[in-house]
Design a protein that fits this description.
Distance between the termini of chain A: 18 Å
Oligomer: heterodimer
Number of strands of chain A: 8
Largest sheet of chain A: 8 strands, mixed
Order of helices and strands of chain A: EHHEEHHHEEEHEE
Order of helices and strands of chain B: HHHHHHHHHHHHHHHHH
Largest interface: A-B, 37 and 37 residues
Low-confidence stretches of chain B: 134-138, 327-332
Strand content of chain A: 25-35%
Mean pLDDT of chain B: 84
Radius of gyration of chain B: 22 Å
Mean pLDDT of chain A: 88
Structural class of chain B: mainly alpha
Amino acid sequence: LGSTRERQATTYSLEKLYLDQAPDHVMEVMAPTIAWLSEASSLHKRVSFDLWHGATRKRAAQQEMVINWDPTVLAAYDADVIARAERIREGRSALTEKCTELAGYGLALSAISVFLPGRRVVAWRKWSAPDLLLDATPGKLRSVEAAARSTGGSGALRRLLSEKRTALGRLPDVAEAHVALWCRRPRVGMMIRVRP
Amino acid sequence: LNRPYVDTLSEATRLKLRAANILLGNAEEAAYQAAVVYHEAYRAEARALRALDGPSRETALRSLVEQCGCLVDGLDPSGAHSLWGRILNEEQRLPRRAYNALTSYLRDRSVKFNDRLDAILAKGPAEMRDDPFLFGITIARDEAMRRRATAFFTQVVAAFPGDAQFWMLRALVAAEAGEAWKSIRRSRALMPDMPAYEMVALLIVLGQTGRREYVKSAFEKLSSEAQPEAAVCYGVSFAASIIALDDRDNAFWRIARDASILGERLVPPQKLEAGVFRFFSLLATEKLAGREPTPELASRAGLPIPIGSRDSMKRVLESTRRLVPGYHLAAA
C-alpha cells in the first residue's frame, strides 16, 4: 500500500444512503450495519475507520472515514430501523456471519456513494465475484467486491485484497472492479480499484 | 441496457437481503420464513436470466450459480442438487479458469451442506436409507413404521425447512390430517409451481371425510385445464378408483377412466407411467361393463407388480404408488 503522509478525512451520514443508493436495498442493510458498527450495548452514532483508498493498490493512501447517523432522520425513512438494530444486538447476532456480511454491504454502499459519486448498486450477487454490480450489462460487469471481518485488522484485509484481486482477474466478463473491505476491530477499511 | 433484466436482478437482491434480515431477527420459525423468501429470490434470478436474449455461457452460469446459492441459503438440498447438476453440465463449455472462478465458492459451501444432509439421512429408519423419496411415497399402512417415518421427516424439515420435497414426504407419511395439510401448505409456499402438490393432496384426502367432493372438483379442474399435468391425472385416477371400490359408485369409475385416458396421452407410451394409466383405464372399463376384474389386470397393463393369489384389487391399486413416485411423474 502507498503513502500515509497525506491523511484526509471524509464524513458520510448513513441516512444519505436512502438518496444515494436503491432505497429498498438500503432498508435491508441499515439495521445490521448499525448493529455491527456499535461496540457498546448502546448504539453508537459515530464511528471512524482508517481507510486505504486509491485508484490502484500501490497508489492507495490512508485517510479517515467517519460514518455517522442521526436516528431521528433515519426514522423518517424507516421508523423501525433503530429498534431493529437494537434487537439484532440484543439477540447477540450482531457478530454472526450474516450480520457481518450485511454490514459489509452497507459500508460498501457508503464507500461507493463517497468515492464513486453518482453510481448506484443495481444488484447483489452473493455466490460469485463480483458481488455488488454497478452495471449488470452481460459481458461488461462494473462492480464492487465487498467483504467484512470482525477482527484481523490491516493484515487480514491485505490478504483478503490479494485473494479478491486474483479471483476477479480470472473473470473475463468483468470490465471494472473495486474492492471494499472492512474490519470491525480495529476499525480499518480499504476501497481500492483493482480492474482495469 | 435490458431494463427487465436489471429490474428483476434488483428485485432478487431485495429478496436476498430481506431473507438475511429475517434470519437476524431471531423470530420463531425464522429459518422457514427466510427459506420462503430465498426461494422467491431464486425464482427472480431465474426470471432475470429468461429476460435476456441469448445470454453468453458466463452470464448463464453466473445466474445458475446464484440460483443454486439461493437454494443453499434457503436450506433446500433437493432444489440445490438439481441446479448443481445443471452447473456441472456447463463445465466443458467454458474455459476452466473462468468456470472454477465462478463456481469455487458455491462448491466449497455445497460440500458442507451435503455433509449435513448426509449426517441427518444416516439417522433415518433403515428402510429409507437407499431411497428416501421412494420410501416416502410407498410408506406402508404399518402404523409403527409410519410413526418412525413421521418422527424422522420432522427432524429432516427442522434441519432443512426450505426443502419442499421433504415437506411433501412428511405430508405423505403424517398420521394426522392437520399435520399433513400444514406440510403441504409449507411445501407449496416454497415451490408453488410443482404439479405434484395436487397429486399428494389427492392421496392425503383419501383418509378424510369430504373426499368425494374433493376428488370430483379436482377432476373438473383437471378436465378444464389447457395443459393438464400427468401427476394430477395419476392422483385423480388413483383416488377415484379407491372411492369407487369403497362406495361401489360408477360415477367414480367414470372419473378414474377419463382421468387415466387423459394421463396416458401425456406420458411416453414406453414409460412405466403409461402402464399405470392403462391399468386404471382397463380396471374402470371392466367395472363399468359390469365385469369383475382380477388382479392380473396389472400384468395385462404391463406393470411389473408381483401378484399373489390372495391380493385384493385395492392392494394392487396401492402398489402403483411404488411405481409412480410423484416427483418423477411431475418431472415428466
